[in-house]
Amino acid sequence: MDRAHSANPLRLFSVGAIAYAAIAILLVRSQVYAAHPDVLAWGLTFDLGISIPLIYWFLFVRTGVMRPMTLIPLFVIAIGVASRIVPAGQHHFAQQLGYVAAPLDLVTLWMVARRLMRARSAAAEDGDVPTRIAQVTRQLFGDGLVAAFVALEVSSVYYGLFCWKKPAAPGFSIYKRSGWDTVLICILVLVTAESIGVHLLIQAWSVRTAWVVTLLDLYGAIWLLGDYHAMRLRPITIDEQSLHVRFGFRWSISIPLSAINRIEPIRSESDWKRKGVLKVALLDEPRLLIRLDAPAIATGLAGIRKTIDAVAILPDDLEAFEETLRKAVQI
User: Fold this and answer.
1) Which of 30, 12, 274, 250 is nearest to 130 (CA)?
2) How far apart are CA 193 and CA 73, in angstroms?
3) Are the C-beta atoms of 235 and 245 separated by less than 8 Å?
4) Hey, CA dihedral for 323, 328, 329, 331, is it positive or negative?
5) Cβ–Cβ under 8 Å, residues 53 and 13
6) Is the Cβ–Cβ distance between 172 and 317 less than 8 Å?
7) How far from 283 is each of 46, 141, 302, CA to CA, in Å?
8) Element (H, E) at 129
């Protein structure tokens, strides 16, 4: 069975897994769960953390549609979802599975890092780190959502931990005008304060659960830092062939200059608040609309794709960006 034929079953499997997670959330909030919390917590954790990966293995891995390596990130994600849904007081089974999931997550990161080191010289011509990481994860896990999720995780860790001293790359930035660095500092301070308070509260009855919650908050902080450094080190650029729009980890697309139809100022919200427009601005509203001749595909978080016919953008130096783009497109 090829990937074209497996697309619909994979999509159905994903929808089914999400639907079951939604049902689990409703069940946890019901009187039935309140009457039998321990039994139902074990059952929900088993279904989310073990049954769903087993079904995935039976339908896709065993039949050769997906690679066995894709089970590792799926299992890690499933345990994380189970830990979020099941109340902290019934995390005993989730904690036991977490002792397996955490090393597997590290193994995944190590495998991707090792493959990146091997491919460094061959990929030297492509200086975009997330692009190289995505290529490696596709080689390891196949071209699917699992590979995209792993690529996002590795990219966030790389940018969040190892890119502090790297100078900003040349191009058109999109974060200075809104003071995103100051906003990010405020968010991190609030997250830190909240994490300390929650940790002290939860550890009164479960030290392990308290550390699990704290580690999740830490990962969220690393992701935010990674996204900031991705915006700083992956600016919007214009070369002889294309406009490369990179918006942190949020969105990325390369648009051929020949595909740009019009460049015009935004006069009202109706110009860009509609389906098919990619917004590339942080706290302020975009001020320049780039219309395309034909629909194009933008890639977002964890491989999410969006069909667009225009880009609504607000670079820090709007005038210089517009002038450069108009010269390149010759409009």
Assistant:
1) 250
2) 30
3) no
4) positive
5) no
6) yes
7) 42, 36, 23
8) helix 129-141
Q: What is the mean pLDDT of residues 230-257?
A: 91
The answer to whether 276 and 308 are in contact (CB under 8 A) is yes
Q: Which of 261, 256, 262 is nearest to 239 (CA)?
A: 256
Of 303, 248, 301, whose CA–CA distance to 129 is shortest?
Answer: 248
Query: Shortest CA distance to 112 belongs to which of 66, 67, 71, 150?
Result: 150
pLDDT tens digits along 275-284: 899 999 988 8
- Provide the token pair at 218: 């830490």
Task: Find the angle CA(242)-CA(113)-CA(208) to the nearest 5 degrees.
Answer: 120
d(CA 158, CA 229): 10
Rounded to an integer, the average pLDDT of 9-31 is: 82
Give 302's contacts (C-beta < 8 A, 6+ positions apart).
145, 148, 149, 152
Q: What are the pLDDT digits (tens) for 71-103?
A: 777 777 787 788 778 876 676 666 666 665 666
For the ranges 28-37, 99-108, 236-245, the maximum mean pLDDT occurs at 236-245
Tokens (6 digits) for 3: 């990937």
In the numeric block, which tokens belong to residue 253? 């697309």
Position 243 confidence tier, pLDDT thresholds 50, 70, 90: very high
Q: What is the pLDDT of residue 195?
A: 83
Nearest to 105 by CA among 74, 84, 140: 74
**What pTM did the predictor assign?**
0.66
| Joined tokens for residue 9 | 């079953």
Contact 283, 316 (CB under 8 A): no
Most confident of 36-50, 104-118, 220-234: 220-234
Q: Are 289 and 258 in contact (CB under 8 A)?
A: no
Which among 4, 93, 84, 13 is positioned nearest to 45, based on CA atoms? 93
Both tokens assigned to 252:
């990325």
Please state, in angstroms and rounded to a whole number, the distance separating the CA atoms of residues 243 and 315.
13
Radius of gyration of the chain from its Cα atoms, rounded to whole angstroms: 22
- The residue behind tokens 């450094």 is 229
